[in-house]
Amino acid sequence: MPNVDYTPLNTQKHRFSLPEGLHYLNCATRAPLSKLAEQAGHDAISRDTNPFGLRPDDFFSGATRVRSLFSELINNPDPDRIAIVPSVSYGMAIVARNLPQKPGIRAGQTIVLVESEFPSDVYAWDRVSKELNLTIKTVPMPDEFPKGPTWNERLLDAIGPDTALVMVPPVHWMYGIRFDLEAVGKRAREVGAWFAIDGTQAVGALPFDLTAVQPDVLVCAGYKWLMGPYSLGLAYFGPAFDDGVPLEEGWMNRLDSNQFHRLMDYQPAYRPKAYRYNVGEQSHFIQMPMLEAALSQLVDWQPERIQAYTNELTQAAWPALEKLGCHVEPVNGSQGRSHHLVGLWLPKHADPMAVQQALLAQKVAVSARARALRIAPHLYNTPADVDALVDVLTNVL
Prior knowledge:
pyridoxal phosphate; Aminotransferase class V-fold PLP-dependent enzyme; Aspartate Aminotransferase, domain 1; globular; Aminotrans_V_dom; PyrdxlP-dep_Trfase_major; transaminase activity; Aspartate Aminotransferase, domain 2; 12% strand
């Protein structure tokens, strides 16, 4: 891993335009744009009002900078392995498109998922599993606390010689329970399975070391913990996909596509590595500068320090809420809970949607997911936000 600055961060609320009196603990739904990203968007719109002087290389340069920043964030030594995608579903569709070409794929193999995974990571496999006669194996979440160690053990046990693909997130999108990705990746390589990760609810706020995890695919939407705009994401594709089939045949993904005067000399060869998987119109002249600004801030803040800040911010709240009959997963390294996204299981008598509405009435924003509230703080939060959360829940519960 690159050098990490462990100097504690103070609140960065002054870098955001969130109104006073609003307690936004909901970054897992959508991150607020920072002032830096907001200004980058305004500047990009101003540039677009006059496209005079736009050069061919300008269609590619923004994505090049974003690839480098994202690679630095995840410790990826090769930015050419990063593709520009519009969504997680797009990235996972690329995996599904190429699964029939996976060496050794055969009928009767399994695709391993964890229970209650985000829909984009489930729907992606319906068609290909039927076409190849594969079975979806879903690893259930334990009923009792702590859930993380047992869930991780069950996951590793589910990966065997008959596994074609393993799809696991760094943290569960509803509950914040962590999965030991290094152990999962090692097991997947041992049995010859592809290893795909939806990093949307972790990368940017939780340290991620690609060289240690060694996934075949990592896909991240940009509008949550990457702090960027909606409908723009990033995906890493490893060597297994170097000669794969893209979803679309975009002209920018071919060799010499920056030579506009020769575009009619149709080029059969793709640009190297992950470039063939770029979405069409990948330049995103307005959104790309916003994502670049957001990533530059994250590289400066560093996920390790974001974890430390959110831990310090919330650690006193959990014992107080547990006294009300709530439950949280304990901290237990790579098999416990994260600090930036925490599932708070409510008492059985509580209606999660009613509790969420009571919080919203007091301008406290969280998400209700199944029987839990999803608490998702970031650097723009202060102790006053957590105090407001605890106060409302104390009154309601």
